[in-house]
Every structure is written in C-alpha cells, then in structure tokens.
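Budget justification aside, the reviewers requested a transparent look at the raw inputs and outputs of the sequence design task funded under Objective 1. We therefore reproduce one unedited record. The lines immediately below are the structure tokens for a 142-residue chain.
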C-alpha cells in the first residue's frame, strides 16, 4: 500500500512538473500582439500596464483611444529567447491596419513582478540577435 502511494505521488509530481514548463512562444506572441494592439489603438492605459518602466512610453498619453482593427492572425512573430539575460526578443511584421505601409517592430520583453513586460529603453539590432540567438518559434510566418 505504501509503495503504491509513493509511486502515485511521484507520478503526480512528475505530471505537474511537466505541465508547468513556464512561458511558451505562443504566450509571448500573444503578449507582443497585445502591445502592438494597444499601441495602434492609442490605448495609453493598456500601454502603461504592459511597459517595464512606467512612463518610458508616453507617445499616446493625450491621444484619443480608437480601435485600429489590428488582428493577431494578420501578424507574424519571430521569437528568440536569451537564456543568459532571461528575456525574449520578438520581431513582428504586419500590414498597418490604418495605412498602406508594412510594420516591422523589434520588441524586448523582460519579467517584472511575475509578468512579461515590454522594455522600451533597450536598443535592439535585429540582425545581431538573429546571429547570436537561435530562433525559438515563428508564429503566423509564411
């Protein structure tokens, strides 16, 4: 009876450990989408909730919020994880829903207060990141 209980407990611990692997690439892509959506909607309040350093992105502070029509499925997300610094680089590409141009953004997410936040203060060199890190995922890529 005790052996069965121990084996059952070990199996349960193994199962729970396997289910709690952390943040997935899909999770990071959804966070990146939420940021881009807040930015294109000019949703200052949402932007401030997502930013690593409060006040580091003030572009839309006095802008009128609007629905940009930006859709997750119309965007591609290249995701790179930097294990050394525990941060994600996300390169987004999409057609501007409010214009004719294409948008290519480089985003950096770092963990703060147990949530992934956009670090607006870091300069990102897309080509350098692609050389130094292995791509973890490419979501909605063609």
């Amino acid at each position: 009876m005790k052996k069965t209980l121990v084996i059952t407990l070990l199996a349960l611990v193994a199962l729970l450990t396997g289910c709690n692997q952390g943040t997935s690439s899909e999770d990071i892509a959804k966070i990146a989408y939420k940021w881009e959506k807040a930015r294109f909607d000019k949703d200052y309040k949402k932007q401030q909730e997502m930013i690593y350093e409060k006040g580091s992105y003030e572009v839309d502070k006095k802008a009128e919020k609007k629905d940009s029509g930006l859709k997750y499925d119309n965007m591609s997300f290249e995701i790179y994880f930097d294990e050394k610094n525990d941060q994600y680089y996300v390169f987004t590409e999409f057609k501007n829903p409010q214009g004719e141009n294409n948008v290519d953004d480089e985003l950096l997410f770092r963990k703060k207060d147990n949530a992934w936040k956009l670090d607006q203060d870091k300069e990102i060199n897309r080509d350098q990141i692609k050389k130094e890190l292995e791509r973890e995922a490419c979501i909605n890529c063609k």
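The first helix runs from residue 2 to 19. The helical segments are 2-19, 25-40, 44-50, 126-132. Computational costs for records of this kind are itemized in the attached budget.
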